Description:
- The chain has 107 residues and is mainly alpha-helical.
- The protein has one domain (7-105).
- The protein is built from 2 helices and no strands.
- It has helices at 7-48, 55-97.
- The longest helix is centred in the C-terminal third of the chain and has 43 residues, at 55-97.
Amino acid sequence: xxxxxxxxxxxxxxxxxxxxxxxxxxxxxxxxxxxxxxxxxxxxxxxxxxxxxxxxxxxxxxxxxxxxxxxxxxxxxxxxxxxxxxxxxxxxxxxxxxxxxxxxxxx
Length: 107
């Protein structure tokens, strides 16, 4: 017999998933904002034929992309944990309905 899933662990995984989703959305919005700023600066630079001041924007874009990629990775990990706990809870419910687990073991 293995340990049963704690409902508190599932709630925590749900909270972490929600936080990861929010963080990923915020990082995506930040990246989109910087890319829009960079696009406008590139348009202006093309008209003026002056590309020197673009370096800081490219650096900002690289940093925003790194933040987004990290947030996306965190989201993937949170989704995987949440899904695994959800499957485990469903399995436990199924066993309980079949009468294979004592009622006191359920969370």
